[in-house]
Amino acid sequence: MSDLSDEEAEEEAEAYLGEYDGERNSEGERHGHGKAELPNGDMYEGEYEHSLRNGQGTYRFKTGACYIGEYLQNKKHGHGTFYYPDGSKYEGSWVDDQKHGYGEYTYANGDTYAGEWFNDNRHGQGTYIYKETGSMYVGGWVNGIQEGEAELIHLNHRYRGKFLNGIPVGRGKYIFDIGCEQHGEYIQSEEDKGRKEEEEEDPSLLAAPKWKVTEITKLIHWMPNVEKEPSPSEGPPAAAAAAEAAAADEAVEETAADEKDKMQTNAVIDESAEHRDDMPSLHKVSSEVFSPAKDAEVEDEETREEENEEGEEYQGEE
């Protein structure tokens, strides 16, 4: 049996929660707006409900981290922004103290991610931008790793295909800004295929698949559409328009005459023409391999470790 009276027990519990200055309900609980300085040095200012953080509030950690947003029963829940000590920041949806839903994360190295989250991990559809190279990954994520249909966009070309464990796999294509495409497939060596079952638990040990080209499309020449300024000899715009209309009419008449001549010529062509040799086959596009630019580096392990550490919530007033 405890030797403390009810009043002494309440005072001890209040001391455990730290100093508090704010509104209370009829039962003496922290209820409404208030400010608390916790025993561990953290500070909270915001809404309370029955002594629990509930509603909008600001929690400042002694480590330098800070959360500004919504709470539900002492847990980050709703929309909020978390500022980490290393300068990184997450702004978005929270559920049960975890990043969950849509959110935007700015990493300490300047990289950014905007997209879906699930249980503190990038999960679903999202866009990751690498600040150093300017490259951009747009597509699927599973438990923080690039996976599914996606597009990896570089400065002067892009790759479109499937990703698994952060690397491209299977069929895909490189699209170059100069106007051509390189179609092919990422395949694993026979040696890696033999080791795949043995190393399923750690796929990172497998060598990166190699790109095999199957087709290169023709180069499409692109010319800028620059309007020519009329010379003084062409006269005013109205006269130029009239001249263009007359030229168009003449072109229509010439086309009609040509079609008539063709019809007359076709009428006297010998039927044996149907038995002529077939037209020569179209020139096949060369499948000679050329090496595309190297893919942007996958997010390094240090960045992943930082995020995992930062994803673990700081212990505050619980």
TrEMBL record:
The keyword Lipoprotein does not apply. It is found in: Cytoplasm, Cytoskeleton, Flagellum axoneme. One of its GO terms (cellular component) is nucleus. InterPro entries: MORN. Residues 238-249 have a biased composition (Low complexity). The keyword Cytoplasm applies. Its main location: cytoplasm. Residues 1-43, 187-208, 226-318 are annotated as: Disordered. It comes from the Eukaryota. PANTHER family: RADIAL SPOKE HEAD 1 HOMOLOG. The gene is RSPH1. Residues 21-36, 187-197, 272-281 have a biased composition (Basic and acidic residues). Keywords: Cell projection, Cilium, Cytoplasm, Cytoskeleton, Flagellum, Meiosis, Repeat. Residues 1-14, 297-318 have a biased composition (Acidic residues). Functions as part of axonemal radial spoke complexes that play an important part in the motility of sperm and cilia. GO terms for biological process: axoneme assembly; meiotic cell cycle; spermatid development. This is Radial spoke head 1 homolog.
